């Protein structure tokens, strides 16, 4: 490989897979909407339905986000971030609505020494060892 070409980092997925169980009639109606061309596929229908409900309840969601002091969106905690928290003698209260990521090079010991609590509505990406170390601090 030439010196001026660097390998690309693997991109983290920007979605989380969930499973939804539907009754046969509901599923059939979704399939009919797809067949009639209103939606490109089942996933498109489900995403649209979810977004419509979130839009419908936007005011309640905004108030709840403020009331619970949630960071909205993507929040990454690097090893350097946690080491700075440790040097300052502080502990983090992680409250995220979206995606919280604890870097892969964060040790379980560093996580326990710097993270007092974890509340994530959405997804938490961390190594299994870090998740296990913080299990008693997750709400």
From TrEMBL:
Designated name of the protein: CopG family transcriptional regulator
Highest taxon above the source species: Bacteria
Sequence intervals crossing the membrane: none
GO annotation, biological process: regulation of DNA-templated transcription
């Amino acid at each position: 490989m030439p010196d001026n070409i660097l390998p690309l980092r693997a991109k983290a997925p920007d979605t989380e897979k969930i499973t939804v169980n539907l009754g046969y009639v509901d599923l059939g109606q979704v399939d009919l909407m797809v067949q009639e061309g209103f939606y490109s596929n089942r996933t498109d229908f489900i995403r649209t339905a979810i977004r419509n409900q979130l839009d419908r309840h936007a005011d309640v969601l905004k108030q709840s986000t403020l009331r619970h002091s949630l960071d909205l969106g993507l929040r990454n905690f690097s090893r350097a971030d946690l080491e700075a928290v440790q040097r300052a003698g502080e502990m983090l209260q992680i409250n995220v609505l979206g995606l919280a990521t604890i870097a892969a090079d964060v040790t379980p010991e560093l996580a326990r020494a710097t993270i007092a609590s974890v509340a994530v509505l959405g997804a938490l990406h961390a190594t299994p060892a870090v998740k296990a170390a913080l299990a008693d601090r997750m709400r």
